[in-house]
Amino acid sequence: GNEFKLDKLQYPKEKIEKATYNLSLCSTHPLNIQNPKVETELLDGSRVTLSCPPLNQFNTFNIRLHYSGSELTPQVMIKYGSSTAELESFYDMIMLFHPRIALVGPQNTGKTTDIVNLCRRFERDTVIITAETSYELNLQRLSHLTVESLRLNVIPDEDFLTLLFRQNAKCLIL
Fold first, then answer.
1. How many angstroms separate the CA atoms of 15 and 20, rounded?
2. Cα dist. 121→14, 17, 53, 83, 107 in Å?
3. What is the pLDDT confidence band of residue 1, given thresholds at 50, 70 and 90?
């Protein structure tokens, strides 16, 4: 029943290669020299990023588990130092104008948390379409939104765009 985070464990190269191979079976794209980075998910929705040479010196994998827990409201984020009152006020102001926002950065920098934080600010019945694993986003818990989760690698790009325009989505999350 205890949860804890393990940082940077090191295992023998052979075990890592076997693990990356087994994890790549969850993907529609094989992990190999021609395709050295694969992103997929486990059955429980956890995101998995796999890579191999020539992208890295060795095979690597990153499993990003989804931890349920207390709601990360702006107030909670300010309390724990993940945000500031000034940033939250800025978000409140810019969301009135339905901006186009790009959140970029390496893993574990809070992009998913910021996306949920911004989506909280949409008005009732805003249509949001996600084109990624939405398990971590869990936008369905924001009952004032209409969320449609699509998979880019499952439906053709043209169909995705058609659905996007037909549903009059105010927000697209890639």
1. 9
2. 47, 43, 42, 16, 24
3. very low
